[in-house]
Each structure stands twice: as C-alpha cells, then as structure tokens.
Amino acid sequence: MLPLPVFALLDPTMMRPDAMGPLMIVWAFVTSVFLFTLWHGRLSAQKFAPVAAGGILGIAASALLIADSGAAYAVLSLVAVIPTIVAVSSPVRMTYGFVLLSVVTATLVSVLIASSIAPMLVATGAIIGAIIVPVFLVLALRHSLEEILERQTRLNSVDPLTGLLNRRGLHSRVSPLLAAAHASDEPVGVLLMDIDRFKEINDCHGHLVGDGVLLSAAATIQRIARPGSVVCRFGGEEFLVFCLPGTIADLEEYADSFRAAVAENSPVTISIGGVFSPLVMSDGQDERDSGALRELLEIADRCVYQAKANGRNQIFVEPSAPVAWTHDAHDQDLGHPNSHPYRLSMAFLSFSGFQTPRQREVTRVNAGDAA
C-alpha cells in the first residue's frame, strides 16, 4: 500500500485515467493512519476500530484506482490482514464485525473491477477465504491460550496440599467482601488459626504425618466455614478465615466453633486470634489507607500469640478501631451499591449462600413470624 504511488509513477499505465490525484489522497490517508498507530503504540479497542475501518476502506479505494485487474485483486487481498489483527486481542463481536465489513467490501470491489463473471467469482472466493480462515485460526488459538491462562491462574491461587486458597488467592477473593462490607456498612472479621505444637509433630513423626495433620485440619476448617467466608492456608501451619460477622460475640462464637471442631476431629488443637473491625472509606492520603487487610492481619497475628500464651487451644478476639480501606483506582465505584462491580460481588456472595448479618436477622424474624 505505502509504495503504491512509486509504482504508479514508474508505470502510469497500471492506474486508471486521472487516478493519480485520488491515489495520493488515499495514500496520504493510509499513511496518516499508519503513523497514528505507530505514534500511539498499543491502541484500545475503541481507538483501533476507526483506524482498522479506515484501513479497509483505504485498501478498497486503492484497488478501485488500479487499471490492471490482477494487480487490483492483489491489493484488495490485503483487507484480510486487518480482521486477523483485530482477532488477536479485540472483543470477539468486534472481530466478527470486521470480518463482515471486509467480506462485504471485498465482494463489492471485486464486482466493480471484474472483467468477467468467472474470474470475479474465483477471486472473490479466494479473498473471502483469505479473510475468514486466518481469523478463525487466530480465534481458536486465542481461546486455547485464554483457557490455559485461566487454569494457570486458578492453580497459582490454590494451595496444592490442602486445596484451599493461598495468599494470592486470598487477596483476589477478599476484594468483593471488602466492597460488600463497606457498601452495607457491615464490620469485617479475620480469624487467624495456628496449629499448636506443629513443629514437634514434624520433628517427632516426620513431614508425611505433618501433611496429614494439615489435611485433616484444613478439611475441618473448610467444613465449618459459613457460606461466603474466604478460607485460605495462610502459610505453614496457619489458616485464615475472612468473614462478615454481625457482632464481636458472633465472631467469638464462630472462632470457637472452629476450635472445638478441630479438637474433636483432628489429632491436634488450634489457637485462634481474631479481630473485629469496621471499615471506613479512605481519601488515599495516608500510606495506611491501602493496607486494610495488612492491618487486620497484624492485629490477628498478635491475638494468636495471646491465645497461645493463654494455654493453647484457646481463642482470643478483640475489637479494632475502624480500618481505612482504599479500593483500586480502576474500581473507584466498587463499593457503591449501584455499581456494576458491587452488584457482581453481591451476586457471587448470594449465589454461594452468603447473607449479611442484617439479612440473617430479617430471615430469623420472618421465620419466627411464619412459625
């Protein structure tokens, strides 16, 4: 496309009469589109759409200005490149739109430049095939890569021994709970659990026995966890449950249910430290503002040590001052009840059986009235 005016100057007979002026206009347009893309680098789908459409129209116009039908069809075949580029990363619906635009444009131009029906049908079929086949190959490869990446992401978020979330998975799953807690004005609770004398078990009985203890404790913790709670293996012999309790008494009762269940169903006991804290929206001015989860974990860790100091197989839960929470900049309306991210997070939690303490209270009242 770009060197086409040079070829036209070297051999003017390849162009239609008086086509040099329009060709230079088309060439200037295509060149500006190319330079625009080069200058801006990676374009968003919204910015790339008019650029790609302009490229298709520029190729079609150039083919119409060429007198030789063979050369015109060769230039016209370049329309296949653009839908293939679109298919690499743009939305699938946008890709299909550009496939349709390219096929319609190539067909119309092919009809206009054809000298007879048979060559027109052959050339049009070849160009349509050149458009469709690479696009669907790219889409199939892209789908396979996306599945691999999604599977890898899931694996990276799960502890391979217990099947619980790991720290990476915890951070990805806590955001919806923080958004829901802030929007519904509910406090948050963190329970950090540490298996008592786990090092002695490993030293005396070996790591295989230690792994069995971890599996037994993890299974019990996961079974006791309420719907909507986030459960993870926090590291080593530590487990963490992130939840939305109604009151500190509710959190203490929740913590004690874990302690009692592990003591009853596992060969070990656990010490549990808990923190109960409201959330406040931060203005982002303080370094502490982005560390809501980190602050809660630090307090919970101190509470675990206190539970162990009290004799192990104990719980120690304390309230905390409101913790400042700053959501990500790209989710600036995450915590608003009408926002799309918040509605998605609440839909996910509702699907998993989660109810806020207020919703649980309404359910209990309604059940009492019905009885």
UniProtKB/TrEMBL annotation:
SMART domains: GGDEF. Keywords: Membrane, Transmembrane, Transmembrane helix. The keyword Transmembrane applies. GO terms for molecular function: diguanylate cyclase activity. The chain crosses the membrane at residues 20-41, 48-66, 72-89, 96-114, 120-141. GO terms for biological process: cell adhesion involved in single-species biofilm formation; negative regulation of bacterial-type flagellum-dependent cell motility. The keyword Transport does not apply. Residues 186-320 form the GGDEF domain. It comes from the Bacteria. Signal peptide: none annotated. One of its GO terms (cellular component) is plasma membrane. Pfam families: GGDEF. PROSITE patterns: GGDEF. InterPro entries: Diguanylate_Cyclase, GGDEF_dom, Nucleotide_cyclase, Rev_trsase/Diguanyl_cyclase. This is GGDEF domain-containing protein. It comes from Gordonia rhizosphera NBRC 16068. The lineage of its organism: Bacteria, Bacillati, Actinomycetota, Actinomycetes, Mycobacteriales.
